[in-house]
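call fold(seq) -> C-alpha cells
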Amino acid sequence: MTSSSKHRSLPGDVAWWMFLTAEFLTLGIFFVAYAFSRAGDVEGFQASQAELHPQLAFANTLILITSGFFAARGVLSMQAEKPRTCSKWYAAAAILGVAFLVIKSMEYADRLGAGINLSTSTFYFFYFFLTGFHYLHVVLGVGFLSWMAAKTHRQANTPQDLSNVESCAAFWHMLDLVWIVLFPLLYLA
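ret:
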C-alpha cells in the first residue's frame, strides 16, 4: 500500500456526503412506506401504473445515466487540470438535466390534465411525491452543474475547486441512483 492510498478519502466535501446520506435515508423511508402501501393494494397500484408512460420514464433514465457519465468526465478533466474541458462536460450534463425536466414536466401536465393529482389515490400520492421530490433535486442539480460549468470555464483550478466539482458530481450521481430506483418502482413493478 502506497502512502497516497493510505490517506484516501471520499471525493468532494464531507458535508455533502452527510447531506447525501440524509437524503438517502429520507427516501428510503418513503420507499418502505410505498412497499407497504403497494402490498395492501396491489391491483389499485397496478391499475394506476398502467396509466403512466414508461417510454418517457425510460428516456429520462437514459438521459440521467448519460448526464452522469458527462459529470464523471468533468471530474476526470478537473483532476487532469483541464478546467475548461470540465466546464464543457458539466454544461452538457446540465443540458441533459434540463431535458429530463422538460420530459417530466410533460408527463406531469398529462397526468394533471387528466384530473389526476396527489389525492387521486395512494399510488398517485407516492408517484407525485417521490418524483416531485426528485424533480426539485434535479432543478437544484442543474443549478449546481451550471454554476460549476461557469466557474471552471473561468479556469479556476484549486484544490477547493476540485472538491466542489467532485461534490457536484456526487450529488448528480445520487439523482441518477434515485431515478434508477424510482423508474422500476413506479413504472414497471
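The helical segments are 3-6, 14-40, 42-49, 54-79, 83-113, 122-153, 159-188.
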